[in-house]
Amino acid sequence: MKEQKKKRHIEGMDALRGFAILGVVLYHVMPGQFPGGFLGVNMFLVLSGYLIYKTSVWDLEHGEYAAGRFYKKRCIRIYPPLLIMIIAVWGILAVSMPEVAKGKGGEVLSVVGGYNNFWQVMTNMDYFRSGLESPFIHLWYMAILMQFDLVFPFIFLLLKKIGDKINRIIPVTITLVISLFGGAYFYYSGVNNGILFTYYNTFTRIFALFFGITLGFIYHYYGNLVSSKIKNPILKKCIFYTYLVILLLLFIFINPSSKYIYLGMIITTLLSVRITDYATLICDNWANTNKFDKIIGYASSISYEIYLIEYVVIYLFEYIDLNKYLELFLIIIITILLSMLLHFITTNKDKKYKNIRYILGFMFSGILIYGIYEYVVSVDYTKDINKLKNQLEQNEKLVKDNKDNYMVKLKEEEDNWQKKLQTLEEDESKLDEIVTNLPVVGIGDSVLLGAVNNLYNRFPNGYFDGKVSRTAWGINDILLTLKNNNVLGNPIVFNLGTNGDCSLECKEEILRTCEDRDIFWINTVNLTDVNVRLNNLASSHSNLHIIDWYSISRGHNEYFTYDGIHLTNEGRKVYTDTIYNAIYNIYKEKYIEKKNNMINKHDEEIKSKISFYGNDLLLNAFNNIKTNFTNANYITNKDFNYNSLKKEIKKEIKDNTLNHNVVFLFDNSVNISKKEYNNLIKLCDGHNIYIISTDKKLSNIKFDYENVRYINVYSEIKDLNYLTPDNIHLNKEGNEYLGNLLNEVINNNK
Asked: How many helices (H) and strands (E) does the chain have?
């Protein structure tokens, strides 16, 4: 019987199991380098379906198969390592981190009860997004296997009976159809329902298990597939390991945010079927003599224990500050040693190890008692998790509405700005017409009087008052009369001084009356001292503009009559043009200044705008952040990673909606390295960048960019107890802290 049982073992599966667990471990330890390592789970599912079928057939053929017997064997294999791990971890957390251990009762119950995959969906846990949310988050896979184990004996016995009694093609066809339709449903669900629902769902993942069962039926009734035609064992192994290399490439190039993720998972499943076929033909003798294969074989034997242990070790190391390379080394060593120990405790029956098992059993019994106690007295925070989930969902809707409103408002603001600018530019193009129709007021002596007709022709809406021998004395009375009668237009032109000057107080009085208007004062051609005083006066009054008729007319005798003061026809024309040009130029300057002010204001408004990118850290604190940043663009994604974030930023750049200030808000569930942040910084060249992080792994990094402000607040929020028990999300006080921090850093520039 012992010799018979040996035949149940397929040596070729060892490498495949070892490779599958390697992919999962690499994903957990180095997600940046092996983002597709989670595909190893698909390999496990195919292998599980195939091996459960093979062992069931063997037991059935040797008269040892029954549903109760099957359940007993599966429980003996699954539960002892699982329970010891759970109790040990729970005990460690209860002693060292009681705030984390509290409320694990519901989660542990879901693991032991075999429905953890659905529990994680209900509590918004995400294997990709929140990898450090719980030390048990990886156990969703066990739930799928447990659910499958419940129904497998009935499916197996029914299909085996049909195949043996009726037609062997029927079970092959049925399982193959289930696999194909299941794969199609998996892809459809992924595209339409997203990664969370699809990845955890038993009904979407069952197709991989059934592919394994299909392969088992084919192998049982028809023998091995194409690989049986290859006789050379070395060639078989070469092909086998070539398939593994292809899978390794998928581990490297497929990531959770890739649009090819569902296709990659299906390809991995099909490749797993193919290499499982090869694995069944790898020579036992070679495996027994080759040291590498022996190592692989042993690694395979403890693959289940590695799967249980490695993620827990990674989780616990997050609470220890170590060099990342030392941390990686210790994680690997401790995982291997603990997995070997756990395997030894649960499988070794040798009497010489009885005392050791008693000691270990006593230790774990103590942990078990404490774990049970902690379960009884702990507060189940499932309700809190659900409350947080609901809050995040509400905030997600608020963010979406805010973004929609922001884009509408942004378009309206830009349209209004363009209209104002266009109107101003149109006015500028019509400046000649505008100046011509100004209600110009001209008051002067006989020089102005002589040009009145020319002035009215140039300024038809003007009012001109010229008088022989007039000086500036008494002019203010005229201005007040016009002002009181609401006929004092703008601008005002003075041609006074030819007949003598008035005092500074007199001129100041005139200017006060006209203080809200543009004043154009024409200097004299005969009294340079008057001109000097006018220039001095203009230097202290911004609305006083001197028309330098003295310089313009100098040397042009043709402009004047015999007295060199009064104007000829030609002189009157040039005189009028000079007044017009002076007014035109000032108004043009005003238009240019107004346009520049508009542009500068618009530029400042643009520079003040902010684009927020974040995951749950931003989503959870949205209401607190929105208080201080009302006119900002918020882009949130619970599944943000480097690639999806880069894609989103590129889209914003293309659409010209990336604001001048860019804020990244990510917690420790997002694995973005310093190198990847540097790439994002280069992508946002010319923008002010703020990186606010609660990622412990990035607590000590620095960025050598003048436009980058990096702040890691993990230590602060940890010390201030601003984290929820999951050690990721912020509580109410933490959200208030984050909102105030952003206000201080960005708005107050501290």
From this structure: 33, 10
CB contact at 8 A, 311 and 138:
yes
Same fold, 431-593 and 609-747: yes
pLDDT of residue 230: 65
CA distances from 476 to 445, 447, 515, 686 (A): 15, 19, 12, 57
Say if residues 184 and 203 touch (Cβ distance below 8 Å).
Answer: no
Instruction: State which H helix or E strand residue 102 sits in.
Output: none
CA dihedral over 132, 134, 137, 139, signed as positive or negative: positive
Dihedrals phi, psi of 692, to nearest 5 degrees = -110, 120
Q: How does 298-325 read in b/e, with b if 16+ C-beta sit within 10 Å?
A: ebbbbbbbbbbbbbbbbbbbeeeeeeee
Distance CA 297, CA 301 (A): 6
Class of residue 675 by CB neighbours under 10 A (exposed 0-12, middle 13-18, buried 19+): exposed
Which strands make up the sheet holding 544-547, listed edge to edge? 463-466, 441-444, 492-495, 519-522, 544-547
Q: Which two tokens stand for residue 237?
A: 């192994």
Count of beta carbons in the 10 Å neighbourhood of residue 291 = 7
Domain boundaries, the chain: 2-379, 431-593, 609-747
For residues 266 and 191, what is the distance between their CA atoms, to the nearest angstrom?
13
Dihedral (C-alpha) 479, 481, 483, 489: value to the nearest 10 degrees?
-60
pLDDT of residue 285: 40
Cα separation values, 286 from 38, 232, 245, 295, 418, Å: 30, 12, 21, 13, 78
| Distance of alpha carbon 449 from alpha carbon 447, whole angstroms | 5
| Per-residue DSSP letter, 746 | I
Cβ proximity of 581 and 555 under 8 Å: no
Residues whose CB falls within 8 Å of the CB of residue 263, separated by 6 or more in sequence, listed in order: 187
- Domain 609-747 sits in which CATH superfamily? SGNH hydrolase (3.40.50.1110)
141 φ/ψ angles, rounded to the nearest 5 degrees: -65, -40
Rg (Cα) of the chain, in Å, rounded? 42
SS3 sequence, 4-45? HHHCCCCCHHHHHHHHHHHHHHHHHHCCCCCCCHHHHHHHHH
The letter for the amino acid at 133 is: E
Residues of the chain with pLDDT under 50: 1-8, 130-131, 283-288, 378
Give CA–CA dist 111/94, Å, rounded: 18
Per-residue HEC secondary structure of 232-269 comes to CHHHHHHHHHHHHHHHHHHHHHCCCCCCCHHHHHHHHH
Cα–Cα distance measured from residue 315 to residue 318, given in angstroms and rounded to the nearest whole number = 5
Q: How far is Cα 20 from Cα 584, in angstroms, rounded to an integer?
A: 82
Q: Does domain 431-593 have CATH number 3.40.50.2000?
A: no
SS3 611: strand
The pTM assigned to this predicted structure is 0.61
The DSSP bridge partners found for residue 567 are 560
Task: Identify the CA nearest to 318 among candidates 717, 670, 722, 695.
Answer: 695
- Segment 565-604, tens digit of pLDDT: 999 999 999 999 999 999 999 999 888 888 888 888 888 8
- DSSP sequence for 440-471: -EEEESHHHHHTHHHHHHH-TT-EEEE-TT--
